[in-house]
Amino acid sequence: MASAKVAHILDRMVRKFEMRANLDETDRAALYRLPFEIRDVPANRYIAREGDRPPGATLIISGLAYRHKVTIDGARQILSVHIPGDFVDLEGSLLRIADHNVQSLTQCEIAIVPRAALVRLIEQHAKLAHAMWVDTLIDGSIFREWIVNVGRRDARAGMCHLLCEFARRLKAAGMAEDGGYELPMTQEQLADALGITPVHVNRVLRDLDREGLIVRNKRFVRVPSWEALRKVAGFNENYLHLDQAALPAAGGPNYQQMSA
Amino acid sequence: MASAKVAHILDRMVRKFEMRANLDETDRAALYRLPFEIRDVPANRYIAREGDRPPGATLIISGLAYRHKVTIDGARQILSVHIPGDFVDLEGSLLRIADHNVQSLTQCEIAIVPRAALVRLIEQHAKLAHAMWVDTLIDGSIFREWIVNVGRRDARAGMCHLLCEFARRLKAAGMAEDGGYELPMTQEQLADALGITPVHVNRVLRDLDREGLIVRNKRFVRVPSWEALRKVAGFNENYLHLDQAALPAAGGPNYQQMSA
DNA sequence: CGTTAGGTTGACTTGATTCAACAACAGTGG
DNA sequence: CCACTGTTGTTGAATCAAGTCAACCTAACG
Questions:
Q1: Which parts of the protein come within 7 Å of strand D, by CB position?
Q2: Which end of chain A is less congested by CB atoms within 10 angstroms, N or C?
Q3: The Cα angle at residue B53 between residues B49 and B54, in degrees rounded to 5
Q4: Contact B139, B86 (CB under 8 A)
């Protein structure tokens, strides 16, 4: 396929799904043939709202976005942060109703894929459906880790864990160097991700800085020792399933070994 | 199919997946033809362990089970509670490695479905794969609500929310009357689900009881006014997606209306 | 009938919140 | 170019929700 040779706006997404299942050339071509509409979104705009039934699924092309919910008394909880290549509301297309909000974190380019096209795609390409399902499973795994992060880690450990997760995911996406990265969130957003107050975020970051666990320069965070940070966080990256290569088909070459 | 006529051990699971996609007779038959091995599990036993690669997926036939993770310093966080008809570790079969533990809450009957059979099933029955995927999406939605529950609700509201969720899910599964239900967890387990201490759980329950929001008799919880409890919890059941009927196929009768 | 798991309560401590003030900075418009 | 404005970040002091520690109670069970 010619489209695979030149840089394409859907490349990141395709590359991700290639890691989630054994796609063949037909699958890849179908992905590249998906219709979509590109939209530029300024920072902090709603992309989908709880209760909505959006017209299509949203794919992040560039920039970052996050999911969140707001409690009855107005407190916000951030649920996840998404990077280019992520679909942020498959739920909206496959479930009846969106159960959470999606908002742009930075300025974003997004692609809206009409629900009809997406549904057809997964009906006609079992491997792609499988890849997306696996993606949903990994999302679930990350949600679980976040439950632990807000439920059972104190602010300090929780913050370090969040920093480790960002680092690892941004690096895997080729968006961060080893030395550190641009933290894409305000302290208020960090607070809403950790289930604490912005004031406390500030104090925790200050203390981490004083201890030398991180070095801040504006929003750029340099980490002198990942080992030290991971230790404070109790960070184990298994839950990100970054190694998730495609599973062999039933009866395939690795199959015996796996069921043993 | 004869097997659909008499009570069958897989009925609950089949009924659930029927709600998740438009299954046809072939799909249903394939589900009933799944090979499995029944196992009796006493309360509080590990069913799967973090880091494991279990030989198959575990389906709960009777009893309750829960997922949990343990932090580096030994604190436990419960991630979800599962009822009969739920697969509790599809992750184990579709991802490389289990990222959390699964334990029986009460005495359980479980069915172990060999990974091979499951993989074949989803390769040969796109609708079943779709149903399971939708199920994974709903699991994800519940995880998100739990992030909110531990992150942004105080102990009192969190407890009420948990009580509402159990009530609603148990009722949907025909396992609770309107008046109340047998709370299946110890106070320590409730604490681990809410990210607080057992002592505090005790005090919160005592206060709710004193206020008349709940009436306790051993572990049986009677709720005089669901309305009142929902209000304290800020409970909105959307996230459970209980109405999740099967989505129409692309081009099906409801399709126009939906993409409009 | 002792043993153990689960539940209950009080006294004290602590991690995090609240409130309030102020500093740094970017963008905007006169 | 500078004053004005809003957002983000920073800090101290007081307060509070939840944690800790420790004692004791109750029911189930071999």
A1: A 186-188, 198-199, 202-203, 205-206, 216, 219; B 154-156, 195-197, 199-200
A2: C
A3: 75
A4: no
User: Left, alpha or beta for A241 (phi > 0: left; psi -120 to 50: alpha)?
Assistant: left
Average pLDDT across chain B, whole number: 90
Residue recorded with tokens 């599809």? B90
Partner-chain contact B238 A67, CB within 8 Å: no
Residue nearest to nucleotide C24 (CA to C1'): A218
Closest CA to B61 of B139, B6, B113, B116: B113
Are the C-beta atoms of A55 and A115 separated by less than 8 Å? Answer: yes
In this complex, do B133 and A132 lie within 8 Å of one another by their Cβ atoms?
yes
Q: What are phi and psi of B38, to 5 degrees?
A: -80, 140
Per-residue pLDDT of chain A (260 residues; tens, 9 = 90+): 444 456 799 999 999 999 999 999 999 999 999 999 999 999 999 999 998 888 889 999 999 999 999 999 999 999 999 999 999 988 888 998 899 999 999 999 999 999 999 999 999 999 999 999 999 999 999 999 999 999 999 999 999 999 999 999 999 988 888 889 999 899 999 999 999 999 999 999 999 999 999 999 989 999 999 999 999 999 999 999 998 755 444 433 333 333 32
Q: What residue in A sits closest to B119 (Cα-Cα)?
A: A250
> Does B133 contact A244 at a Cβ distance shorter than 8 Å?
no
Residues of B in contact with A141 (CB under 8 A): 91, 95, 99-100
Note whether B116 contacts A247, CB cutoff 8 Å. no
Which tokens go with B85?
């008809």
List, for residues B225-258, the tens digit of each pLDDT value: 999 999 999 999 999 999 875 544 443 333 333 3
Which segments within chain B are labelled E, that is strand? Answer: 37-41, 46-48, 56-62, 65-70, 76-82, 101-104, 108-114, 180-182, 215-217, 220-222
Q: Which two tokens stand for residue A56?
A: 């299509």
**Nearest CB to B77: which of A50, A123, A151?**
A151
Q: Pull the structure tokens for residue B91.
A: 């992750």
CB atoms within 10 A of CB A29: 14
Residue B23 has what DSSP assignment?
-
Residues of chain B (168-207) having a beta carbon less than 7 angstroms from strand C: 186-188, 198-199, 202-203, 205-206
Q: How far apart are CA A121 and CA A98, in angstroms?
A: 21
φ, ψ dihedrals at B111, nearest 5°: -115, 125
Closest CB to A136: pick one of B116, B133, B194. Answer: B133
Place of tokens 């991180």: A214
- Name which of B107, B63, B58 is nearest B81 in CA terms: B63
Using the beta-carbon criterion (under 8 Å), do A99 and B241 form an inter-chain contact?
yes
Contact indicator for B40, B140 with CB cutoff of 8 Å: no
